[in-house]
Amino acid sequence: MDLQIALLLGQDGITNGAIYALLSLALVLVFTVTRVIFIPQGEFVAFGALTLASLQTGVLPGTLWLLIGLGAVAGLIDTVFALRDRQLQRIPRILGINLALPLALAGLLANIPLSSLGLPIQVLLTLAVVVPLGPLIYRLVFQPIAEASVLVLLIVAVSVHVTLTGLGLFFFGAEGSRTPSFTDASFEIGDAMIQGQTLLVVAASLTLIVALYLFFERTLWGKALRATAMNRTGARLMGISATMAGKLSFSVAALIGAFSGILISPITTIYYDSGFLIGLKGFVGAIVGGLGSYPLAAAGAVMVGLLESYSSFWASAFKEVIVFTLIIPVLVWRSLTTRHTEEEE
Amino acid sequence: MSEYSNDTTAEKPLILDVRDLSVSYGKVEALHGLALKIRAGEIVTVIGPNGAGKTTLLSALMGLLPARGEIVYLGQRQGSDRQVEQLVRQGMTLVPEKRELFGEMSVEDNLLLGAFDRYRSGKRDHADTMAEVFDIFPRLRERRRQLAGTLSGGERQMLAMGRALMARPKLLMLDEPSLGLAPLIIREIFRIVGELKKTGVSILLVEQNARAALQIADYGYVLETGEVSLEGPSEALSSDPRVIESYLGLGGRH
Amino acid sequence: MSASPRLQLSPAWVKALPLIGIALLAVAPLLLPEFTVTLLNYIGLYAIVAMGLVLLTGVGGLTSFGQAAFVGLGAYTTATLTTTYGVSPWLTLLVGLALTALVALALGFITLRLSGHYLPLGTIAWGISLYYLFGNVEFLGGHTGISGIPTLGVFGFELHSGREFFYLIWLAVLGVVVLTRNLLDSRSGRAIRALKGGSLMAEAMGVNTPRAKIVIFTVAALYACLSGWLYAHLQRFVNPTPFSLTQGIEYLFMAVIGGVAHVWGALLGAGLITILKQWLQDWLPQLLGQSGNFEIIFFGLMMIFILHRSRDGLWPILLRFVPQAPAAQRVTTVGQPLARRPVVERGQELLSVREATKRFGGLVANNQMSLDVRAGEVVALIGPNGAGKSTLFNGISGVDPLTSGEITFRGERVERLPSREIARRGMSRTFQHVRLLSGMSVLDNVAIGAHLRGDRGYLPAALHLERDEEARLLTEAAYQIERCGLAEHLNDAAGSLPLGKQRIVEIARALAADPCLLLLDEPAAGLRYFEKQALAELLRRLRDEGIGVLLVEHDMDFVMGLADRVVVMEFGEKLAEGLPEDVQRNPAVLEAYLGGVE
């Protein structure tokens, strides 16, 4: 391998690593706030990419029907609860958010020339379709069992993953999609050619990471999420409800997932089931951080990206084997550094 | 049940009126048929040995545990499905026994989160409230940038109380504020609790440390194995020998 | 299981069910069409894997999504060895099992040490790894796989068709069912089941929990390997697809949907999922107008529903149609009771704690605490909330070792020993927050306490070669239950008892270990007046037998009436020590409890 190839591979690794890093942050967030190991994260990546691809070909994406369906079920359940509790004043809001908004979005999408819109608008519409799926899934699937053990939540998360993958196949078919590059620009630095797309992905990831940092450090809502992650009882006593924190963290995770999908889709062809492996690589990063530390998770994820990129050069067939076997030394390291203690009052 | 007359406080409006409250863990009743009243601006203390059900009482009042019986708070009868979050909005706060601070956040952020619900409902007076809290606990002002997890035991208790005050509560419930603290610091904490009375907040003080609690309280209840065994104005209780018996038993009574 | 439905089988039918089942299995291949036989073959293969998950997840509380990889290990081992090297299939079964055991031990050694959720995450990772490995290694045939795997011969009879293979598969299923049931109904089985109650309790009862975990992890992997071996010789062809993570997830779905805590649940789940899958694969593409594996949507939703509404799966629901068989008479009086520890002479020192200190970070929970307990005396440890009593208990029993200090138990230093080693030396304890296995009977719970008084391991248990020892253990447990006044609850589920009685069950469990020192953490909490009287009476009797008792208790009437000596703690230190009546009058104690008088 000469320097040029090394740099090229490094570039690839960092690009992918940046996206894995984003995903790993979302996984850490969701786990610390809700104790859910968010296996379906990858489906949000695929849904983001494929929804954008649908919009660009002028087709209404299947995720839109999913949004309407989940909204209808959630709206129905919450209305029944409101009727039971005699809190009729809540019903307009429940129906507005869960039914009217998705329908309005569908009406909008059906009546505008989707394929000829500018890319930023298409991206925004994609996020508008995919991101609300996050809190809806929390509401329907995880909120009723919020007190269950981590293991039960994990099995449920895996169930959500297979369901969404099946739906992805139904919505988008078995064929993959690749969206056009955001930019064709490239720069030459010394011997190396740096592609504009790479810079864009890295810059967008960094921007999102900084935005997340500011959200957690500077806003009361972000602090409320961190507070819930640190001490659930303490947070509840401040009036921060676990349900609200759960929905918010799932929204942030869905946003990160869909956004990652949009970023990655010009680089690789995304199939309905591609998200899973991408999400799991974010996981390897998150596990490096012990599912608790954001910086370690991000660093681990970038490392996964680089490892994957270089191993695809030397042993392309064994790329996945190498990346996922990496988890074993990481687990060994974890088992040596963390002392497993059982909760005992 | 009361053997002492308490008509001096009868005129003030009731903040909390609890009747026939029972709480069970599985098949075991931890509290049976408890009655308790708190009037505006009063400090009411519930004392008793550990295991008597004091923390259970507070958890039930705060909506952390399901309970049977009647709880009337601010004139409103509470439904059985009441949530902690609703009660916080209605001005009820609990400083729990374990403090439950946000250890990896600064003192200032902990306090800020105390005002989360007010902020959420559009009230943006947290800066003023924080200044007031700092006046009550000057130590917290000194440590405002420090992480809550690095505070000493007394400071942690102060932060927990300050954080609760950030919500501008109508009813402040304190669970064993003296727990694990050295005598000097206990004295300081109790002095502050006594002074909080001037701000008009009603206080329900649950304590094992009976003498200190009775010194600042207006009225007291002695809780023993899930039931009120004795109640009355604090002066009367502090000289009642039965309080001591409830703590240390009577050797050879059985 | 509150209201039993009207439709119920009569007890005679219930007894006959297994026989009817076996008879049906015997004639099934002769009567059923080819397609149905094939379906039943697959159900059998899947059930074997799911059975491993019952042991692992349902009983042991560990979760694996990676069982398909072990199935692949079994299948590929035999495929490679038989096709390339012409090794006999029966030999490759042994090689496959050995290889699987090796891999499972290595993976288990790494991942089982980690807290709960790392294991399933780890299984996902190596599930994927192994799948890609199967698909990319040339001598394993890559993605096209290996064909031409020979048929199996049994006593010279070649199993060519699915109908013939049926008998082998279902024999294996029955074998696995019997082994699993035997294993669970034994001393080792109780040790495995104790894992779910938290390793803290299990260790304090003397169970080597890391070993128990690794055993069930390996057994589950071996079942999977067996299924893979059968699969390879049934199909006579392997490729990576059936060993993917998706299939691993489906195995877990089978176990959970069927009822992960029940051996028959695995069979039910495997049957249900396999049949449903067949049906949905025909029907869904027509409905949706596309082809694809859409049945997974249905299974995913079904799992979510099951975990929301009926976490124990479908088997317990099915059980409601079957009348509750009267609890089998499991306790028989056997000739020889268990050997007892030599009695320590009354008054002799049992336990001596010197300058015990425990720090949690900056917090000093115990500071230079010292106390003694002699044989035949009751010592009460009292003090205000947060004084550090439970911490000291955990230090003494080895559950959470001291930072510094010395603990001498029967003349031997024990402060660095793990709790199961301390238990072995004759110290037994109860927990402040009751740690019983609520779904298990009182008898089984108490028998866990006698764990260290037996020594037959996992293999004899699986083959039920330890029935004599088992009977003696159960007799001992039943004796302790009776002694504690709970004879009427012998076969009740421990969780159905009121909390006060559950505490007594904990005492019976501790006694089943034949201890010379009992540590009781708030034994009287939640008891009614007359129950406390009975407990005090029991403790007095134990004291008279020469057992030392150290107890933490808040009920002062109880303590003062029972204890020979009282040790008072405050701020992690000893505040006072003496006779009950002296302690009650001690001004320092009054101040600790009631606060200072200014």
Structure description:
Chain A is built from 15 helices and 2 strands. With about 350 residues, chain A is mostly helical. Chain A has a domain at about 20-60 and about 115-175 and about 185-275. Chain A is globular. Mean pLDDT of chain A is about 90; it is low at about 340-345. Chain B is α/β, with parallel strands linked by helices and about 250 residues long. Chain B has a domain at about 1-75 and about 200-255: Rossmann fold (3-Layer(aba) Sandwich). Chain B has helices at about 55-60, 85-90, 105-115, 115-120, 125-135, 140, 155-165, 185-195, 210-215, 235-240, 240-250, and strands at about 15-25, 30-40, 45, 70-75, 75, 90-95, 170-175, 200-205, 220-225, 225-235. Chain C is about 55% helix and about 10% strand. Chain C is α/β, with parallel strands linked by helices. Chain C is elongated and about 85 Å long. Chain C folds into 3 domains: about 10-320, Orthogonal Bundle (ABC transporter involved in vitamin B12 uptake, BtuC); about 345-425 and about 515-598, Rossmann fold; about 440-515, no CATH class. Chains A and C meet through α7, α12, α14 and α15 of A and α4, α5, α10 and α12 of C. Chain A: GO terms for molecular function: transmembrane transporter activity. Chain A: It is a multi-pass membrane protein. Chain A: It is found in: Cell membrane. Chain A: This is Branched-chain amino acid ABC transporter permease.
Quick tags:
heterotrimer; B: 254 residues; alpha/beta; Rossmann fold; six-stranded mixed sheet; four-stranded antiparallel sheet; C: 598 residues; ABC transporter involved in vitamin B12 uptake, BtuC; elongated; disordered N terminus; ATP hydrolysis activity (chain C)
Proportion of residues in extended strands of chain B: 25-35%
Radius of gyration of chain C: 28 Å
Distance N terminus to C terminus of chain C?
60 Å
- DSSP strand tally of chain C: 14
Kindly report the spatial arrangement of strands forming the biggest sheet of chain B. Answer: 6-7-8-3-9-10
Main location (chain A): membrane
Transmembrane segments (chain A): 20-39, 59-83, 95-113, 119-138, 150-174, 194-216, 237-263, 283-306, 313-333
Keywords (chain A): Amino-acid transport, Cell membrane, Membrane, Transmembrane, Transmembrane helix, Transport
Protein name (chain A): Branched-chain amino acid ABC transporter permease
